[in-house]
Amino acid sequence: MSLSKAKRKADGENRQFQDRWTSSYFFVDYNGLPTCLICKERVAVPKDFNLKRHFETKHGEQYGKYEGPDRARVILQLKKELASQQSFFHQVRKDADAALEASYVVSELIAKAGKPFTEGEFLKDCMLRVADLICPEKRHLFTNISLSANTVAERINELSNDIYGQLRNKARDFTAYSVALDESTDKTDHAQLAIFIRGINNQFEVTGELLSMCPMHGRTTAKDLFEELSGSLERAGLPWDKLTGITTDGAPSMAGKKNGLVALEIEAAYGDVLSFTEVRWLSRGQVLKRFFELREEIKMFLDNGKMTVTEFDDPKLRILW
To answer: Which residues are in the SPIN-DOC-like zinc-finger domain (predicted)?
Structure first.
């Protein structure tokens, strides 16, 4: 490549807007592109030839007659019109963003209060009536808030997905966690399994959230409940070896000694001691049984942590070991 071609290429790649183009061709720099003050059209390549051709072919006949102070006056007026237009569109975007945010805020309040999605339309009617009395000039702002039943459902779904994503991120740092399960029926007589989680990290920050709401179709056997729990923990990225306790509502399918959900948990491979909970399914004997099976590992853990427990070295108790 010749030196002259290389120079032309470099110049082309670093073209910048020149102030003289405003007075010569009625162009200004707007968001990095030359923009015509007259028709608001933008030119992709900022070259003198391109801007000159645009002005002469589209506006030369009407605006070419202005010279000196008259030309400067027309340019100033066109600049004011462009600034006003930009301000208008900026305000429109601002109002639209505020209406969208308000839609999410109201939808979240509806969800937290446990109200039906159709409450959104009722609340919007209330807003419009209040606006008519207090600030009628701003009624259009409330009109733009979308609170139909379908919209509220979509907003709540988006918010729940975001909350679930935050919970997954926190769950990665859990050093231990426990779950609570409650099986009940909704107003349509369909079984629902609510799974709550509480976890703690190395900074002793405790997080408690609703992990999942699982619709149960057909029978709700212990196996069905266990599969729903397993799936929820897997989707949240929660390992079984960090599970320290389970609390249930005491139903037979949950607390059965042989075929209940908790029995299927306990029979699975484990690596920790279940904490004692004052509910029917978990007796002190089960806790002591687990403690006894892990007695050597527990003693090693305490010794490594410089924690002395005299009972482990008691000769009378060592006979039981």
So the answer is: 18-75
Contact 78, 37 (CB under 8 A): yes
pLDDT digits (tens, 9 = 90+) for 42-59: 888 888 889 999 998 888
Q: Is the separation of the CB atoms in 192 and 218 below 8 Å?
A: no
Residues 89 and 116: their CA atoms lie apart, in Å, by 36
The Cα–Cα gap between 192 and 220 comes to 9
pTM for the full predicted model: 0.38
What would you report as the CA-atom Rg of the chain, rounded to the nearest whole angstrom? 35
- Cα-based angle 265, 167, 198 (whole degrees, multiple of 5): 45
Query: CATH number of 173-280: 1.20.1250.40, 3.40.50.510, 3.40.50.720, 3.30.420.40?
Result: 3.30.420.40
The domain ranges of the chain are: 17-86, 93-153, 173-280, 283-321
- 181: nearest Cα among 165, 197, 160: 197
Q: What residues contact 2, with CB distance under 8 A and at least 6 apart?
A: none
Q: pLDDT of 108-156, one tens digit each?
A: 888 777 778 888 888 888 999 998 888 888 888 888 888 888 888 888 7
pLDDT in tens, 84-116: 777 766 777 777 888 888 888 888 888 777 778
Distance between CA atoms of residues 104 and 111, nearest Å: 11
State the pLDDT at residue 287: 67
Q: How far is Cα 143 from Cα 120, in angstroms, rounded to an integer?
A: 13
